Amino acid sequence: MNTEEVAALSDEIVSKFKEMEIILRSSCTPREREIGMKQVKAHIRLCNKAIRSAHLSVGVLRKLQTNISHLKRFSKVIKPLNYTGAGSVKEKRSDRVRWEEIVSAFKSRVRTGVIINLKHKDIQQFFNDSFYLFKSRIINAIKKIHMLKVNTCFCAEFIRKSGDTDIIEKKYFNTKNKVIDEGTDLKNWFEVNVKDCILNDLSEFSESGSGWALNEIINLELVMESHPTLNCRIKLQKNELVLMLKIRMKLVLLGVSLVPFIPLKKIQTESVIKKYFCDRCLNYFTSQDKLNDHVEYCEKLNDCKIEFSRRPIY
């Protein structure tokens, strides 16, 4: 089976399960719903196996990953229909939105998941609930990887009239990769880079005159990738190099270590036994003669040359 056939098959599977969802929402026995759940889970396993084992193109991998998120949603939408009861029960956030992990199709990704809409009709309320699921997953990821690149994809179902029939299609709205680190204000980041961006895209889409209207909120996919280590490199032209220092490596290391040990000379000279320190390397001796012998050796060992540019410095 080639890559095009794999993508087409996954689309067909999702389409069939959409039809099954409509049937199960109307009138079915608990046994029939249980069978439907098993079929959904079986196809999720098949898609995950295809992602791990097959050498597929990037487009097909993304298609499979997206369709897995739809299958995960079907499993969550169907499952509550198995339970009935009486009385008033306070609704939880997990009754409205649910987080599901998705097998990542790409090695560079740290974590991929989808926030599934179960009940929301209003997009603002969906984003408000989604933020808390987003926040907890980002905080857990930041503990392991201190800097992330994060992007999202909002999926919704749109409807349009065409004669006497209704055409229903899924539309996707992507956001760009943006960096998150330990100091990021997650509430503001989500508002600016996810909620506002997607709402703007939806507004432009509705105003384009296409005739599409929002019918159902499906999910919000979240992709986390590790951000590469930041490096700083300044390239200087030869004629821009004002000062050239040619110093041996030993002296460079010595110069770096001088600062923290400068107070040592004062402390040790206050002791009862007088010590004679070398100003170059901070070695000390018990007599002036030994220090003099050492100074001659130290001067030869740490000989260096400094060249200044003849060009004027402005």
From TrEMBL:
PANTHER family: PROTEIN CBG23764, RHO TERMINATION FACTOR N-TERMINAL DOMAIN-CONTAINING PROTEIN. This is C2H2-type domain-containing protein.
